[in-house]
User: Which sequence fits this backbone?
């Protein structure tokens, strides 16, 4: 993955879906979820998005 490549709307939406799944599994608190979702929609690059999910298991994809 090229961290400096600009993120697309569909990539942002995919990260938000992953965060939603993490919330549903109790891996994130509601406050953490809200902060990360806001950051996902504000993300400029793929690296910004990757940072939001680095501590979540890959099985959420």
Assistant:
């Amino acid at each position: 993955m090229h961290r400096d490549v600009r993120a697309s709307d569909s990539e942002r939406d995919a990260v938000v879906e992953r965060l939603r799944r993490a919330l549903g599994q109790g891996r994130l608190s509601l406050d953490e979820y809200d902060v990360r979702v806001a950051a996902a929609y504000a993300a400029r690059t793929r690296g910004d998005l990757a940072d939001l999910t680095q501590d979540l298991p890959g099985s959420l994809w």
In short: The CA atoms of residues 16 and 38 lie 9 Å apart. Helices lie at 9-24, 30-42, 46-53. The radius of gyration is 11 Å.
